[in-house]
């Protein structure tokens, strides 16, 4: 192997296209060079759209280009397919994950979507001593019996130092903070005789009778020997107003019980819990 020594050539190094020297590429050191350095090329030609990157010591490798200190006009789109595209503009649109999940850093420094755990702000209230018949036939929210809560009885309330709910009456409440909440409801139903119930809905609505949150239940039947059942549901919801009033109620869809049969809601065995997620 021969070695070409060009250390004493004080002009650009020209690489010609062919023996006729018709066209060439020149390599030249910068005029302000203050010390010697060596650049070592990579061992292959890499893939399309790769760039040369240095390790700080002159060793060059192929890699993905990074944009630093530059302004990007328009949207930045990353990915090859619609399902994989990450678009960064005035807002960030990220595929995958579910609504209200957040990116959480893992122990290996990676990040992934997870449902956040609640912080130390929580509020739980027990229902008043109240039993009411659940209306059938898809009764409108305005006509449904509203659940009554023991807001005036301190023993019915368990909460953190920050009260997350305020009560306007035993049936109407407001949130004291905006944000993402985990809403949980645990309640008890009791059948009259052996009624058959389908498509029952537990509804949190605002004072304009608009449904905000619905937990749908389905039962095959009740039997007289074991006619009480306890239910639990939980869901995340975003609260954007601290002035809007909210209420809880129940309704059912089509039912097949006979006259005198049906389902009672036992409010004194009901628990309503809110946890603020940050």
How is this structure best described in words?
By secondary structure, the protein is mostly beta strands. It folds into 2 domains: 76-114, no CATH class; 122-277, Jelly Rolls. The chain contains no helices and 20 strands. It has strands at 13-16, 24-27, 51-54, 60-63, 76-78, 86-88, 92-93, 102-105, 111-114, 122-126, 131-133, 157-159, 165-167, 173-175, 179-192, 200-206, 211-217, 228-239, 246-251, 262-277. Strand 3 (51-54) and strand 4 form a beta hairpin.
Q: What order do the helices and strands come in, and which of them pair?
A:
Blueprint: E1 13-16, E2 24-27, E3 51-54, E4 60-63, E5 76-78, E6 86-88, E7 92-93, E8 102-105, E9 111-114, E10 122-126, E11 131-133, E12 157-159, E13 165-167, E14 173-175, E15 179-192, E16 200-206, E17 211-217, E18 228-239, E19 246-251, E20 262-277
Antiparallel strand pairs: 1-2, 3-4, 5-6, 6-7, 8-9, 10-12, 10-20, 11-20, 13-14, 15-18, 15-20, 16-17, 16-19
State the end-to-end CA separation: 67 Å
The average pLDDT score comes to: 78
CATH architecture of the largest domain: Sandwich
Query: In CATH terms, what is the fold-level topology of the largest domain?
Result: Jelly Rolls
* The level-1 CATH class of the largest domain: Mainly Beta
DSSP strand tally: 20
Q: Number of helical segments?
A: 0
What is the H-and-E element order?
Answer: EEEEEEEEEEEEEEEEEEEE
- Going by helix content, strand content and strand pairing, the class is mainly beta
How many domains comprise the coordinates?
2
Largest sheet: 6 strands, antiparallel
The percentage helix is: under 10%
Low-pLDDT runs of 5+ residues are: none
β content, as a range? Answer: 35-45%
Tertiary shape: elongated
* Alpha-carbon Rg, integer: 34 Å
């Amino acid at each position: 192997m021969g070695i070409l020594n060009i250390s004493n050539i004080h002009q650009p190094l020209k690489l010609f296209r062919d023996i006729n020297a018709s066209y060439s590429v020149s390599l030249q050191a910068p005029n302000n060079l203050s010390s010697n350095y060596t650049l070592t090329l990579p061992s292959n030609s890499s893939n399309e759209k790769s760039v040369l990157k240095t390790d700080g010591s002159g060793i060059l490798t192929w890699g993905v280009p990074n944009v630093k200190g530059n302004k990007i006009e328009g949207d930045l789109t990353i990915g090859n397919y619609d399902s994989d595209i990450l678009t960064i503009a005035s807002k960030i649109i990220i595929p995958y994950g579910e609504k209200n999940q957040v990116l959480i850093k893992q122990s290996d420094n990676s990040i992934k979507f997870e449902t956040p755990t609640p912080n130390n702000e929580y509020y739980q209230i027990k229902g008043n001593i109240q039993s009411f018949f659940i209306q059938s036939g898809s009764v409108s929210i305005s006509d449904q019996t509203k659940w009554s809560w023991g807001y005036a009885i301190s023993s019915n309330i368990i909460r953190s130092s920050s009260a997350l709910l305020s009560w306007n009456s035993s049936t109407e409440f407001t949130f004291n903070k905006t944000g993402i909440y985990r809403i949980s409801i645990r309640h008890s139903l009791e059948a009259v005789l052996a009624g058959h119930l389908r498509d029952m809905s537990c509804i949190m609505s605002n004072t304009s009778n608009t449904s905000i949150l619905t937990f749908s239940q389905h039962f095959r039947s009740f039997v007289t020997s074991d006619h009480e059942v306890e239910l639990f549901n939980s869901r995340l919801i975003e609260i954007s107003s601290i002035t809007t009033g909210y209420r809880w109620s129940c309704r059912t869809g089509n039912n097949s019980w006979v006259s005198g049969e049906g389902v009672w809601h036992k409010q004194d065995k009901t628990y309503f819990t809110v946890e603020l997620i940050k």
